[in-house]
Design goal:
The complex is a heterodimer of chains A (about 775) and B (about 240). Chain A is of the alpha/beta class. Helices cover about 35% and strands about 20% of the residues of chain A. Chain A has 5 domains: about 35 residues; about 55 residues, ADC-like domains (N-terminal domain of TfIIb), CATH 2.20.25.90; about 210 residues, Rossmann fold, CATH 3.40.50; about 210 residues, Dimethylsulfoxide Reductase, domain 2 (3-Layer(aba) Sandwich); about 140 residues, Barwin-like endoglucanases, CATH 2.40.40.20. In chain A, helix 6 runs parallel beside helix 21, helix 7 packs across helix 15 and helix 18 packs across helix 20. Chain A starts with a helix and ends with a strand. Chain B has 3 domains: about 50 residues; about 150 residues, no CATH class; about 35 residues, no CATH class. Helices cover about 45% and strands about 5% of the residues of chain B. Chain B is built from 10 helices and 2 strands; from the N terminus they run ααβαααααβααα. Chain B is extended, with a radius of gyration of 28 Å. The chains are: A alpha/beta (about 775), B mainly alpha (about 240). At the A-B interface, helix 1 and helix 2 of A face helix 1 and helix 2 of B.
């Protein structure tokens, strides 16, 4: 037989047919079909929840200052879900997008896994792992050397938030070490507090009882965009919109942009930015002129509305006369852009409402505000007589009492160091109410005045990202010989650090959570570890204790506690019991009566307050009531303003991956930052919708994509804040541009704080 | 082309057909051989290739422990919230085995390698269901009053752990599909159990090739009860696939 092609095919077909017949009588094809389909459902990258015992642990979220109680669902040792704690006094079971994404910080790629020492260039992010013993010893040794050389003042510390025991421990360390250079964030609540000091004579953060208000007049506060305690605000808003018997709360939003808050309010008043004080005073004008103010309160509990004679028998011009003469709605219309009829109508509505309240603090309120705007807004509240009344301003008992610790020990070095001027001494001297001016930090470092800074300890706040002119701050960071970061994540500042001594993430650590801003009642939370530390991190409080102990002498003696927990218990005093039992301590005292509220020398609310230390009467000249942005309008004719939303900026952490994923393409288009411009303005510059453009300010520039949006006032460029990070992980880094790098500080004439609400900018088609 | 050549060409196919007709028996023979080979591959080689075999990290004697504790629930208990704890961890085992109690090398290995090093044993779980299946032990055992043995067989009588076979393609335990590659199972565990009790002459004492067919744990097996058993009829897809 010849094996040719045909033979081969015949035999082959025969064998194949036999094989096919045979195989179809085995389970192979059917099993493979089944298994093949199962195989497609089990890709190795598909996350599968762990198995184990399900448990629920409660703590407090610290991703923003909101202080929400959160319950973490665990399976075995693994946290799998974060939810709001039901019945918690702050968030009442609610949670925000950022809060429920917290596990992505815990397990995500932005975490620092253990103590690190820089080996690359500053900002390069090149570190080598070291042990905790080495880290503490090396930092303590370097600090000791500087202290022994008699230059303790050349060490500075940025604590991030001002309140809480961890910032207090760092402050105490600096005191014992001998440096006056402690910087903390200055936000709108600090401005409220400064106003409360002079108008109410009380050293406390005011709160607002918005849940019980019948009319909320908001001067630019992003009530639904992350202002105050964000979830508390959302819950309150939801409650107020229920169709129950209670009349709904009316919200009037003054803002140059149709923000979420403006869109959800009952009336949106698009006043020019920076003119809120003028608008508030124009309303005061109407209320006084038409005699609509609360006569009882004004007559018996305030001073300075009408003309009066002071202690030295000198006649003084009252608030009423100043306002009536200078702030008529017609005159102010040119400044604010709001027509007089609207002002009159709103003023009457406000005065006649059952429980009106006026609030301020721009957007999320995480930046200090213009002192005069806050004065004007608190004056409106006083005219309505809503102080310590349901639905009004609540002057809380100080919720930031200094920890009940014994005084820090001192020695000759620390006493000499503490006598040296602060780095911001020169600008602080210029302003009657200035306390600490972190925005001047970069200039002081770059100039080396009043002295050269040698060490910076960064306990929080990510100054390399959030401080204005942040590119300058980054340059300053490269000039400081030693930068130590305590950040649990690779934030923008940590990238410039020489040492990173990573703190636990909030879900792994114990700490007090100061009362959230804006609440009418003081609620101090207790964050408790819900999971063992995932990495080799250490509580920042313990790190500072150990550094102090390694330095011996009076520095070590100032920290008598074994660990952070011990000093936290001592600091919380009799509040600790409640905090341990229920996770928070809540103020029970009722609001004090009007006779007991005011601590001014007159024991009354001051319409025309004096500055402390004989600083004189606060100016009421119209010019002072309009804040200007930074830069030159001739070269940069537009004004860039930040857009804050709950999705992006929270003043503490960058956005986790899930939040970045949820970003609409009106904020971030691929890696492009999208800026909002009114179509009229955009057309004037020949920039079409969706076009790319170069946004420039005197401090920097960024390539952006332009979105035509009728919701923003012509002449403005709305820039989403919270993007353009150089730190964090691949999900956030390099996306968009950082507004803070484009914007610079504008100092308030009274407090000296950075109150810039915008920056002069130009747009050019790219 | 010449006429002669043309004729030659025309003639060719006839001759060829005759030549190839003789191929048929050989073709048939090859087909039969191939069919047998395929049957062999499908029934014998394929299962050998499909499943990987692993021994448990510790050879565990269920029978001994049941004698000591008296039941399954001492170790495989329900938590306070009604969820089923499944395989016990060190926290349970160290109730007795915080130190070596006897002379069994497996116990010594457990204490030294796992308890002392604070490591959990990575047991292979014969009955682990895929993630897409919701299964509540409480509903079956507490409410339905089913015996553990109904689904798992008489594991409590096993004196040593049997090998764990995992499907290389799906990653599932072989017990889900059932040991019988045909997928036809008689829902009878007795052979398996007797093999482990040492009463069967399975090749390696683990009952392989002992001729039994063990119960599978695939969807159809669940559906047997869920569809047909009186009072149980819960036939919706979302009963299990939440």
């Amino acid at each position: 037989m010849k094996l040719d092609r045909r033979t081969f095919l015949t035999l082959g077909v025969g064998a194949a047919a036999g094989g096919a017949l045979g195989i179809s009588f085995t389970p192979l094809p059917w099993k493979m079909t089944d298994d093949g389909s199962i195989w497609t459902q089990n890709w190795p990258w598909t996350p599968v929840p762990p198995t184990g015992e399900v448990s629920e642990r409660e703590t407090v979220c610290t991703l923003c200052p909101g202080g929400c109680g959160v319950s973490v669902r665990k399976v075995g040792d693994r946290c799998v879900k974060i939810e709001g704690t039901k019945g918690h006094p702050v968030n009442k079971g609610g949670i925000c997008l950022l809060g429920l994404s917290g596990l992505q910080f815990l397990y995500g790629p932005s975490r620092v896994h253990g103590p690190l020492k820089r080996i690359g260039r500053r900002g390069e992010g090149n570190f080598q792992e070291i042990t905790w013993e080495e880290a503490i010893a090396e930092v303590a040794e370097k600090l000791s050397a500087i202290r022994n050389a008699g230059r303790p003042h050349s060490v500075a510390c940025m604590t991030g938030p001002a309140r809480g025991t961890v910032p207090a421990l760092f402050t105490r360390f600096m005191e014992a070490f001998g440096s006056p250079n402690v910087f903390s964030n200055q936000d709108s609540w600090d401005t409220h507090r400064q106003v409360a000091k002079v108008m109410y004579g009380v050293d406390a953060y005011p709160g607002f009882d918005l849940e019980n208000a019948s009319l909320i007049l908001s001067f630019g506060s992003g009530l639904l965009d992350g202002w105050g305690s964000p979830v508390h605000m959302l819950a309150g808003y939801g409650e107020s919109r229920k169709s129950s018997a209670r009349p709904q709360t009316r919200i009037v939003q003054v803002e140059p942009r149709l923000s979420l808050t403006a869109a959800k309010s009952d009336e949106w008043v698009a006043a020019k930015p920076g003119t809120e004080a003028a608008l508030a005073l124009a309303m005061a004008h109407v209320i006084i002129k038409e005699n609509l103010y609360n006569k009882n309160f004004v007559a018996f509990y305030t001073r300075g509305l009408t003309d009066w004679t002071d202690e030295n028998n000198r006649p003084q011009v009252g608030f009423a006369r100043t306002v009536l003469e200078n702030y008529s709605p017609v005159k102010m219309a040119a400044i604010t852009g709001v027509d007089p009829q609207t002002v009159e109508r709103l003023a009457r509505q406000f005065a006649k409402a059952e429980r009106p309240v006026a609030v301020c603090g721009r957007a999320q309120g995480d930046q200090a505000g213009e002192f005069h705007t806050f004065l004007a807004v608190h004056a409106l509240n006083a005219l309505a007589g809503n102080i310590n009344r349901p639905g009004g301003v609540r002057i809380k008992a100080a919720d930031d009492e200094a920890p009940a610790w014994p005084l820090a020990k001192g020695d000759s070095t620390s006493r000499a160091g503490l006598k040296r001027p602060r780095l911001d001494a020169v600008p602080v001297r210029r302003y009657p109410l200035a306390e600490n001016l972190p925005h001047t930090f970069a200039d002081a470092v770059l100039k080396g005045e009043p002295y050269k800074l040698e060490v910076l300890l960064v306990a929080g706040g990510d100054p390399g990202y959030f401080l204005p002119a942040s590119s300058k701050v980054k340059e300053a960071l490269t000039r400081i010989p030693l930068v130590v970061s305590f950040s649990p994540v690779y934030d923008d500042t940590a990238m410039f650090a020489d040492y990173i001594l990573p703190d636990h993430l909030y879900l792994e650590s114990l700490r007090d959570v100061p009362s959230p801003p804006g609440l009418a009642t003081c609620v101090i939370g207790l964050a408790r570890p819900v999971v063992d530390p995932v990495y080799k991190t250490r509580h920042a409080g313990d790190s500072v204790l150990e550094i102090a102990k390694a330095m011996s002498g009076s520095v070590a003696a100032s920290f008598p506690w074994g660990d952070y927990e011990e000093c936290l218990r001592e600091a919380m005093g009799d509040k600790w019991g409640d905090m341990e039992d229920q996770g928070y301590w809540k103020e029970q005292a009722a609001a004090p009566s009007w006779t007991e509220t005011f601590g001014t020398p007159s024991r009354r609310f001051e319409f025309c307050p004096d500055l402390p230390q004989g600083g004189g009467r606060i100016s009421v000249k119209p010019k002072a009531w309009v804040a200007q942005p930074l830069g030159d309008p001739k070269t940069h004719p537009l004004v860039a303003v930040p857009i804050q939303s709950m999705r992006l900026e929270n003043g503490t952490m960058g956005a986790p991956p899930f939040v970045v994923k949820c970003m609409p393409d009106t904020v971030l288009e691929k890696d492009w930052l999208v800026v909002e411009v009114n179509p009229r303005t955009a057309k004037a510059y020949g920039i079409g919708d969706g076009n790319k453009a170069l946004l420039s300010t005197s401090l920097g520039q960024a390539l952006v994509m332009v979105l035509h949006d009728e919701g923003i006032m012509p002449g403005l460029v709305g820039v989403p804040a919270g993007l353009g990070h150089v730190g964090y992980d691949r999900f956030l880094r390099g996306k968009g541009a950082n507004y803070h790098a484009l914007s610079g500080a504008v100092e308030d004439p009274v407090t000296g704080n950075d109150v810039a609400w915008g920056v002069y900018a130009s747009l050019r088609q790219a | 082309m010449s006429q002669a050549e043309k004729n030659h060409q025309d003639h060719q196919p006839v001759a060829k057909n005759n030549d190839y007709a003789g191929l048929m028996p050989l073709t048939l023979f090859l087909a039969i051989v191939a069919a047998y080979a395929s049957l062999l591959i499908g029934w014998v080689v394929f299962p050998m290739l499909l499943y990987a075999k692993y021994e448990q990290p510790i050879n565990f004697n269920h029978s001994l422990h049941v004698d000591e504790t008296g039941d399954c629930e001492s170790c495989h208990y329900f938590r306070e919230d009604g969820s089923y704890a499944g395989l016990p961890g060190n926290d349970v085992c160290t109730g007795c085995h915080s130190d070596v109690m006897g002379s069994d090398p497996e116990e010594i290995k457990y204490v030294e390698e796992y308890v002392n090093k604070d490591r959990e044993v990575d047991w292979y779980v014969y009955s682990r269901q895929p993630d897409c299946v919701f299964f509540s032990h409480a509903a079956h055992v507490l409410k339905g009053e089913m015996e553990c043995e109904t689904c798992h067989g008489d594991v409590g009588a096993e004196e040593s752990t049997r090998p764990y076979y995992v499907n290389r393609l799906t990653g599932y335990s072989r017990d889900i599909w059932g040991e019988n590659i045909s997928g036809i199972n008689n829902h009878d565990w007795s052979a398996l159990t007797s093999a482990h009790a040492g009463e069967d002459d399975g090749e390696d004492g683990h009952g392989e090739g002992g001729g039994f067919t063990m119960k599978s744990m695939k969807m159809d097996d669940c559906a047997d009860c869920h569809l047909h058993m009186k009072g149980v009829e819960r036939e919706g897809c979302f009963v299990c696939h939440k």
